[in-house]
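From the pipeline queue, job 12 of 40. The input is one protein chain; the requested action is below.

Action: predict structure.
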Amino acid sequence: MRTYLWVWLIFLLAFYGTWLLLVAGYGYWPEARENWPMALAMALGSYAAGSTPMGGGTVGFPVLVLLFDTPASLGRDFSFAVQSIGMVSASIFILCRRQPLAWSMLRGSMLGALIGTPLGILLVAPLIPELWIKLVFAVIWGSFGILHLYRLGEITAHSESAGLCPRRDFRVGLALGVLAGAFAAAVTGVGIDMVVYAALVLLCRVDLKVAIPTSVVIMAFTSLIGVAVKTLVGDWQAQVFGNWLAAAPVVALGAPLGVYIVGLIGRRPTLLVVAVLCVVQFVWTCIAEWDALGSIGLLGTLVAAGVGLLGLEWLRRLGLQLATSGAAVRKASSMREELSGAA
């Protein structure tokens, strides 16, 4: 199969040329050097971005917010900025290699993100307190990690190349794109990739080799929307640029490298490690925010994670029912064809 990796190489040349112009020509090297810890953290984050259904911001957000104790809004803005390089680079790499994607759901979710993300950035995110941004992130990824810890075997066994009902998948993707764009990505900078991935593997029972690249592409697209909207309204946190300068040259290669390496070692061990990290960051957030949460707040956070997990389990059961009914319909159709041929 013919590939077009030269397109990806042109993207890399254009990016690194621009980055060198910024740090050497315009004198921004001190800002990049000052934020070197973020570059180190995103070496792991970019690998996760390319090899799992989790954007690079999944690592960048907790590093900035939990480890460096910066505002949650900075973590969200940095997620958009760094993913606009790392996830876009990985997406171009995926498309150039002509990897299979779940196109029906991807098209629907892209249209939904185009609607929901700007609305969420402009109308929803400004209303969400900093603490809630941290908790939304922790709950979404915590429930996601728990699900993978005990359903990993089943999830990695799926073999469908795409959803069996393209029209339904488009509508599901459209609805998820609007909702996840407005209430997950716009608030935390990540999340729409996980939501679309969950629908693909739990509802449509799609192979991870298709579901994960699809999640990478939708997060890249959403990040570009986030960057465009924030740039147009001038709503960037001041520290984002320095962290971006340090991390961008790492993620531009790290995310595509994750796409490539995971094809050699398999997705199961990578997903297992990332699932553990998701649970750890949830526990870390609860401990770090104990004074602000109190007993009632902590209980509410745990209940929210439980509700999220129940929602994912409901989606899984619905997927099983649809798969069973679809198999019965295909079997009946096959029997009718055999009877007609015999007659």
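Job complete. The chain has a mean pLDDT of 86.
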